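Appendix B, record 7
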Amino acid sequence: MTEVKKLLMGGFIGLGLLAGSCSSDSEEGQTMAGSGSIQLGVTAKAGFTRAVNEADYQNTANYTVQIVDNEDKVTKEFLYKDKESTDNKPIQLKNGSYTVKAFYGTDTPASRDGFYVEGSTTVIVNGDTHTVNVDCYPTHGKAIAYFDPTMDNYFSDYSVVYETKALSATDGTAIWAKADTEPWYLKVDKEGEEITANINFTRKDDGKSTTIKQTYKLLPNKAWTLSIYPKDNNGSLSIEIIIDESTNDEVIDIIVPSEWI
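Structure tokens (predicted):
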């Protein structure tokens, strides 16, 4: 299995905790007299790419935990390494409805330094103790471009410019220049979204430029790789693009626009 196909596969963080027993649906949102407790534990089950520090994401001590009440007030917030309870000592809470959140990383539209992981679940504290689990998933997908070294034989410059909703909303940019090697982590909708890769080329012999657009529905926790090669068909120049979706490769032959010929 290639590094691309390993990328972010099964990448999630499991957050385990024990909490007061659940009440009926009609009791949700109500604050009950008395108190209960939650027993907090965090386990990391993510396998990430070499482009980021895998140990940072697997080390649960780095995760921030928030416990939010039904009035959206953060009642407790701490790094897991600084949690106020030991593994065998529950965190005391007043009876009521809570949302438990766990997250790590920086939530940006695009980054080459890493990505953002988050998860949440609700719990009703009502005296007794029970187990609740939170799974935290990346909010970003991964985009990679590979330019074959022979591109330099035909083109003086080439690059890929990615477009996403989050980048458009912030006037941000994510550019893969011809010498780049590090992947882009792009924030996308939870259900996935169609992103655009603008593949730009400047021909070496006459300086003419053109752009080829490729679109793809990128899901969080998934990868999209464009492998780009020059192709000379008996003097007619074209570009071959291999799209890797982490499951199947699809080869697409794209003919350079006629004004280039």
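Remarks on this record: The longest strand covers residues 193-203. Residues 40 and 135 are 14 Å apart (CA to CA).
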